[in-house]
Amino acid sequence: MRIGLLTGGGDCPGLNAAIRAVVKHALGEYGHTVIGFRNGWKGVASGDLQPMSRDDIRGVLDSGGTLLGTARFHPHRQEGGLEAVHATLEAERIEALICIGGDGTLHAASKVAESGVKVVAIPKTIDNDVAGTDRSIGFETAVHIATEAIDRIHTTAESHNRVMVIELMGREAGWIAVQAGIAGGAEVVLTPEQPFDIDRITAYLRHRHRAHANFSIVVVAEGAVPAANTSMEWQTKYGDFGEIVAGAVGEKVAAEIATRTGFDTRVTVLGHVQRGGTPLPSDRILGSRFGVAAVDAISTGHSEVMTALHGEDVVLVPLAEVAGKSKPVPQDLIRVASALA
Amino acid sequence: MRIGLLTGGGDCPGLNAAIRAVVKHALGEYGHTVIGFRNGWKGVASGDLQPMSRDDIRGVLDSGGTLLGTARFHPHRQEGGLEAVHATLEAERIEALICIGGDGTLHAASKVAESGVKVVAIPKTIDNDVAGTDRSIGFETAVHIATEAIDRIHTTAESHNRVMVIELMGREAGWIAVQAGIAGGAEVVLTPEQPFDIDRITAYLRHRHRAHANFSIVVVAEGAVPAANTSMEWQTKYGDFGEIVAGAVGEKVAAEIATRTGFDTRVTVLGHVQRGGTPLPSDRILGSRFGVAAVDAISTGHSEVMTALHGEDVVLVPLAEVAGKSKPVPQDLIRVASALA
Amino acid sequence: MRIGLLTGGGDCPGLNAAIRAVVKHALGEYGHTVIGFRNGWKGVASGDLQPMSRDDIRGVLDSGGTLLGTARFHPHRQEGGLEAVHATLEAERIEALICIGGDGTLHAASKVAESGVKVVAIPKTIDNDVAGTDRSIGFETAVHIATEAIDRIHTTAESHNRVMVIELMGREAGWIAVQAGIAGGAEVVLTPEQPFDIDRITAYLRHRHRAHANFSIVVVAEGAVPAANTSMEWQTKYGDFGEIVAGAVGEKVAAEIATRTGFDTRVTVLGHVQRGGTPLPSDRILGSRFGVAAVDAISTGHSEVMTALHGEDVVLVPLAEVAGKSKPVPQDLIRVASALA
Amino acid sequence: MRIGLLTGGGDCPGLNAAIRAVVKHALGEYGHTVIGFRNGWKGVASGDLQPMSRDDIRGVLDSGGTLLGTARFHPHRQEGGLEAVHATLEAERIEALICIGGDGTLHAASKVAESGVKVVAIPKTIDNDVAGTDRSIGFETAVHIATEAIDRIHTTAESHNRVMVIELMGREAGWIAVQAGIAGGAEVVLTPEQPFDIDRITAYLRHRHRAHANFSIVVVAEGAVPAANTSMEWQTKYGDFGEIVAGAVGEKVAAEIATRTGFDTRVTVLGHVQRGGTPLPSDRILGSRFGVAAVDAISTGHSEVMTALHGEDVVLVPLAEVAGKSKPVPQDLIRVASALA
């Protein structure tokens, strides 16, 4: 069987573990041929590819990023994109495609499957908001990096009696913010799921600093938005939150806290470091398991499915059930974050 | 409500997160009193205790070990042990007990509950073999430390063309060995679940070194045992495997590999470092969630239950269903380990 | 002898190791009394202090920040500042003062010494620009954190074919930028010591991406400035570089690269995480050695000296020789950075 | 110019940084040809070599081990060894040789230089005992790994009220033990430089545990030996310390402490993990600087010299002054270790 393989969307740690697993298992267990497409769907559309051998995946298990490269390119949103993809798949006689990616890639995968090529998706996103799976590749490493940053900022906050605001990734969902907030012992965690009330936040910080502490950590997901009752005032001051740019929310929240409380307040925008570097074991393992499961799925006739983690098990879920959906942070977790603040 | 709190069995990373969560949530949400017992059940039996305040848990979230201390003491296995425990609980008017521990602690908890004190258990063990929960506190950090060690040994194996044997913890179950083996890209993983055949192992290593590699990593759980067909010979040479001591298996396996293959072979016994140090975010979060859930459980009238992770949810399972049972590594994971070797 | 102890200026990893060494050695070897002042010179001026016992320094060796707190307060720059300092020192019968700090603290120390109190300084600054010593406390940990960030960003740069600009601390000197740049394999390193020519940089990047690479890492110290021939144009576009604010240089450089080359370019401003967290062993050791040496110096009659690292030895240098001076990155190191780009 | 390049002796982190620097600088700055010999002197003797291009050194800066491989092979100690080396060097028209290694390699380099080939050595050893340089490649990373292990063991020691003995590398000199001991806050540090008195150690531990602590960390270099007054008894019990094998000293010291004090005592032998894994920035920088300096030295006519770190400068020292010598830990450092115990 000739299997195509690609990684799409933003890079993250654990992609190489999945690529390695697909290649090792497809070649070793089934004798398939694996064709790697470079730079995601862009490489499928343009025919930029390489046959994958065991040599290509040597020593990649503990490396971040993706050896295949990636790009934010979605064939179904480009004029002629899907046609170009189909042309390449046909020319290369690709019978099945394993697509490692986030929501955009899942959507593209559904579209491509309509043409008859078998498609199995593997979910990856540091934001952890792909529906239908407990976890996606890259999330736990991102939480680790974010928590490490909070730990570091903690010592400065305490030594200087400061409020430290740290903005983390998470445009649609606050998974990284909530988990790193719990793990780092943040006093306040702001997420896209729960519009925040700046008055309540500053009241809480004033109370805390009066009562028993001289510093605070405020974690802000990049997609956090102010609640309706305060958003008017914010819009006047800072413009429309619909056009949030990196760093914007964190800086605004810090500015408001500083102005309203008079506390020495600083902001850090963690940025791209959250997607890089050596993957945690849990992401290497998840990538490895998903890679093996995807090859097994394709080899046993499955299509239009996504590998998923359900508890301790790796299962297959229909793409139709998950593409286009999102997975918000559950109330339970948000409650733990605020109970321990 | 007066709640007793203890940590029993071996220490591990994430215990302080659980202690912190219990104290913060019990005091902040419910106004309970929390009495901490020192050194596990030993402290209950001897009345060694301290009321816990918010000051006691400041700054502990990212620290390893347990601030309450622990000991390998089981009241139900000591003459008069349970009586002493009950005497203290009565004298201190303890209405409920939160016990953080492994299988021994769960068992003791069941016994103590017979007297009428409410009991909620929180599972912790780096070995991950507590039944009824996807994960126990401490496991993921142990896997991380073990994987880091394999990563380090990898570079020496390659640079010197060696077979490196590394012995990891896991007396009854091979969870650390299998997960660190997958994450570290080990060629061979030996677990208590699957008796090993030294002939097959050495044949595989010879084949590998002839075909395409000049080094190998062999991961051995401390409870790994030889298969029946080879055990006779091993018994003659090394004595009864029933009396395995730390380091024994790794050294024997390394000696056999060296003798049979002639490859330069070295052994490392990772030992106590696997239970220590800064907890990973996932163990801090699990400890925090379990701590909050245990307090909620007790406050709403539950008893003889254990907090457990099922997929993304924290749930309560009856102690009777899990105490005395063990959770072996599933075949699925073992298969991934060998598929990617 | 009654010794005062303070930490001044920005916090950094390794301060607690120095504090611990001063207290342990002063109490254990000489039987001195140690009075800790809170929040740097501010605490001396206001009489905010605590006698230090062995209990106060338990468990702090591997923690970041300073348990004494710090503040950016310089008594010699405040009206009545020095007088308040002297009043406290006299009231508390302080015979000698150990000041851990950067250039501002060294300067204040010189002024205070004029009154007759013995003064020994210990140099700390993540910027490493204190003159007279090979290294200051905090520098190596900051380089480690910065390098780790570059390593992480590297995988994203490669996976997405991007130019990644990373702004690091270093207002007066580019020590962190140069060392992290060498360690992280950066293609371009911009420092305050060498005004940069944006034309040369973009020409080099274009050449590199044409010839053999599809990504680049550009490290920018926050105090980097454009060379005279281009600064005019920059001033028109971005305003005066004399008023650089955090993030400004990195963002400007990234904007210019993106505009001139058309490459996908992103910027990360690492910020406060560079000063925090667990100190590297080398900073714990340096702090410990400086602390012991400072106590020895005071106990043997020295004053107006700074502990310093010269090669493998800890020595004393006169404050007069180092206060007010700065230590730029040597050409040798800058040459290595560019030779390996 | 045709330059040969090899890494000899045990592997360590930072070797690849040195190899990369030699290749990049020799090719980029001077247009030399670089021939890499595989597996140290063994590859020179047998003619196992590869011309080095920029492709060979891509992505290796942050990797441990040596991409050239290494072996514990010394041509001057083998019958016909030097002749074979000379034959290869002549056949390959090698004009100069850059040898990265420890004392054995320095010695071999001196011998090879007698034949007229220019030789420049680069010192590496995790033991840090090469004379003539402040630091050798690999040392700081080894100290980091060892300190991390002590940090981890610390939490178990405290939680279980134990004496934890940890054996670290260092057969001839106790550099790792002393520096990791200071950084990890060990109570006792045993080195080859100072024969130890087990009576004094156990008396100290008993005193400490009576007075104010319930746990202790004892660091033992693998080459530590008992003092004359106790060695007789030890010899009777454990045999000749002249034949120390890995793990032996640590286990014996732990056994004696347990017997004499009755404290719960455990031993960990850290072993091979100390030589592996991602190099710290300081080792990447040292390797990079030494690599550039070695190429400069050869290109400007130097021979029979070693690159060395003196304070902040990289200098050249004559091989004759350093080969065969060793660098013990200075009393100053040992004093700091015991002052802070």
Description:
The structure is a homotetramer. The first copy, chain A, is of the alpha/beta class. Chain A folds into 2 domains: about 1-140 and about 280-320, Rossmann fold (3-Layer(aba) Sandwich), CATH 3.40.50.450; about 140-275, Rossmann fold. Helices cover about 45% and strands about 15% of the residues of chain A. The first copy, chain A, has 12 helices and 11 strands. Chain A has helices spanning about 15-30, 40-45, 80-90, 105-115, 140-160, 175-185, 200-210, 230-240, 250-260, 280-300, 320, 330-340; strands at about 1-5, 35, 50, 95-100, 120-125, 165-170, 190, 215-220, 265-270, 305-310, 315-320. In chain A, the strands form 2 sheets. A 7-stranded mixed β-sheet of chain A has the order 3-2-1-4-5-10-11, with helices on both faces. In chain A, helix 4 (about 105-115) links the parallel strand 4 (about 95-100) and strand 5 (about 120-125). The radius of gyration of chain A is 22 Å and the shape is elongated.
Features of the shown structure:
homotetramer; Rossmann fold; 341 residues; 12 helices; 7-stranded mixed sheet; 43% helix; alpha/beta; 11 strands; 4-stranded parallel sheet
